[in-house]
Amino acid sequence: MDLSGQTIDGKYQLVSIAGEGGMATVYKAIIRGAAGFQRTVAVKHVRPEFRALKNYVEMFIEEARVGSELAHPNIVQVHDFCAVEGSYFLIMEWVEGIDLGAFVKQHRDGNKLVPWPLAVAIGIGTLRGLGAAHERVAADGTPAPVIHRDISPHNVLLGINGVVKLSDFGLAKARDRIASHTAPGTVKGKLSYLAPEVAFGKPNSVQSDLFGVGNILWETLTGERLFDGKTDVEIFKKIRAATVPPISDRRNDVPAALLAVLDMALAADPANRYGSADEFAHALGQVMKQAVGVNAATALGQAVAASRKSLSDDANDHLSTTERPAGNSADIEFSKPDHNVEPLELTQRRPSQQMTTPALKTQGVPPPIPPKKDKP
Ligand SMILES: Nc1ncnc2c1ncn2[C@@H]1O[C@H](COP(=O)(O)OP(=O)(O)OP(=O)(O)O)[C@@H](O)[C@H]1O
Ligand SMILES: [Mg+2]
User: Fold this and answer.
1) CB 322 within 8 A of CB 102
2) Backbone φ, ψ for residue 17 (5° rounding)
3) Which is the closest atom of ligand 1 to the Cα of 98?
4) Which residues carry out catalysis?
């Protein structure tokens, strides 16, 4: 069911489908105000089949309310919640970009590895948002932490301005609660991101969220799922075994310090992981110092814009990835194959392909980083 063209609650004009997840369809929409004011928002429409689940709507509303109370630059802001003729809509901040799942897939399909400083920047942004939720306090000042429970690549949105935003705080708990009421497969694709202790039946926690961030960073760096298998049972067994294959078997440019950070984040025992999102982010910040001369936000924004352009080119011309010319899918690559301890540099390739669409030009996309000439 495509609701594009319809206006919700008299003010949100649905423009087009932006993406579809397990429970909902997300629309790009416009809200119009006085004197020609207009703003783009994201409208998430809960699929009708979820409406029928007992207590689901109440949980959804409750969690939407919690999500709306979280305000942080690295969290997708929830603005509003509407019920129209039995349909439920969550109105959120619009992120002009792509989700991390699409970003990683686009690199994998183009046989490219995500530059490690970008993975680190994605990790830091995600952890800043997560930390704000974990450290949330109620209006009376008492701690009221929100555990995300659903850290996965599709819930990390990457803006073409280089900003990283974590989404779906509101829905994660509701999903968690209804999982037992729904047919196997509803949470398919999400299973791979469970922390080992959660796979053993323990509740989600700050530490299980941090494991989730370690998991998506492992995937971002390797282009592979950390825990994968043909069946849910196979995946489940792998999660419980908590065996993390070495990243260094897959690429040799990742600094040892970053490998050590991920080892800690992905420790099987929650007690051996970072104590908080801030601690984890700080450790990544230390690693980022090795990316000398890299403006991570600018580089990430450029890579996201290039990735998005490549994805829309692919959708338009229907070329399979094997038919695409090599090197067409990313504009940024490392100039050196092995820089475990040396400072890093990013070089631009194919500058003629940078951000040529008028739509992107008008969105304040930063100019390309000039190639760095002085080598250490
Ligand atoms: N605020 C937003 N701004 C722009 N695009 C968004 C926004 N929220 C979601 N999207 C896009 O819509 C897609 C669908 O989102 P949705 O949260 O419904 O599903 P998902 O995250 O892919 O899976 P899940 O159902 O497990 O959450 C996302 O993958 C993302 O690409
Ligand atoms: Mg989502």
Assistant:
1) no
2) -75, 130
3) 31
4) 150
Write out the DSSP string of 291-326.
STT--HHHHHHHHHHHHHHHHHHHHHH---GGGSPT
Same fold flag, 7-93 and 97-349: no
Residues 6 or more apart whose Cβ sits within 8 Å of residue 214: 262, 265, 266, 273
Q: Does this model's pTM top 0.85?
A: no
Q: Whose CA is nearest to atom 13 of ligand 1?
A: 19
Sorted by where each begins, the domain ranges of the chain are: 7-93, 97-349
In whole angstroms, what is the distance from residue 315 CA to residue 330 CA? 16
CATH topology of domain 7-93: Phosphorylase Kinase; domain 1 (3.30.200)
Nearest atom in ligand 1 to 95's CA: 3
What residues flank ligand 1, with Cβ below 6 Å?
18-24, 26, 42, 44, 76, 92-95, 99, 154-155, 157, 167-168, 190
CATH architecture of the domain with range 97-349: Orthogonal Bundle (1.10)
pLDDT digits 0-9 by tens, 104-149: 999 999 999 999 999 999 999 999 999 999 999 888 999 989 999 8
Q: How far is CA 295 from the centre of its chain?
A: 20
> pLDDT (tens digit, 9 = 90+) per residue, 34-75?
888 899 999 998 887 777 765 667 767 777 887 888 999 999
